[in-house]
Design goal:
The longest helix is centred in the last third of the chain and has 16 residues, at 132-147. The protein contains two helices and eight strands; from the N terminus they run βββββαβαββ. The N and C termini lie far apart (94 Å). Helices cover 14% and strands 32% of the residues. It has two domains: 10-57, no CATH class; 82-194, Tetrahydropterin Synthase, Chain A (2-Layer Sandwich), CATH 3.30.479.10. β7 (179-187) and β8 (190-194) form a beta hairpin. The protein is elongated. The chain has helices at 132-147, 161-172; strands at 13-18, 34-40, 46-53, 82-95, 108-121, 150-151, 179-187, 190-194. It is an alpha+beta fold.
Length: 200
């Protein structure tokens, strides 16, 4: 008849965990926390064994203290710093290139992506260069309403990406103070950038 092996010779496996007493406190009855191993021996017997005491670091006692408890004044920037805003827009449009010798001379379409960039000093009172909502409203009114799901040949004789980017600048510049750049993606991996007449 087979006999069970002594307790200390059994192969144990399991997970280490922090021990808690019956009241949910680390350790037992106010004592230090300790590591326990939930084990299953080679005979299928499961038990919970204390394997080590682990004193908590002193820093852990202060884990609830932090910046929220410190009496620190909120930062309020009063100086003017120059910054740049980039706002992304998308539109779908058709076009053909009448002066191009290739498939793009036939009518086709693109899902365009355009980034409108503004630069200026941050107003200390508002903390902004410009309101994103105002930028989006102006671009919607003066640009997107004219090009989205439209034929760009109705606007430009030869609507290459370069000419479209220049036209977008000319349309938006009177309505967006601080406009410094138009970046137009005709396809996801290729774009053209226009920074106004005379810009490098």
């Amino acid at each position: 008849m087979a006999t069970s092996a002594p307790e200390d010779s059994r192969q144990l496996s399991g997970e280490l965990c922090i021990g808690f007493d019956d009241h949910g406190r680390r350790g037992g009855h106010g004592g230090p926390p300790f590591l326990k191993r939930t084990c299953t021996d080679d005979l299928g017997k499961t038990g919970l064994h204390q394997v080590a005491e682990v004193p908590l670091p002193q820093r852990a006692a202060r884990c609830c203290s932090g910046y929220n408890d410190a009496e620190m004044p909120a930062i309020d920037y009063k100086d003017r710093r120059r910054m740049r805003l980039d706002v992304e827009f998308q539109f779908a449009a058709a076009h053909r290139l009448p002066r191009y010798d290739g498939p793009c001379s036939r009518l086709h379409g693109h899902n365009y992506k355009v980034f409108i960039a503004l630069e200026g000093e941050v107003d200390p009172a508002s903390g902004m260069i410009a309101d994103f909502g105002v930028i989006k409203a102006k671009v919607q009114e003066h640009l997107l309403a004219r090009v989205d799901h439209r034929d760009l040949n109705d606007v430009l004789e030869n609507p290459t990406a370069e000419n479209i980017a220049r036209w977008i600048w000319e349309v938006l510049q009177p309505h967006l103070p601080g406009l410094v750049e138009v970046r137009l993606y005709e396809i996801p991996d290729s774009c053209v950038t226009y920074r106004g007449q005379g810009a490098r």
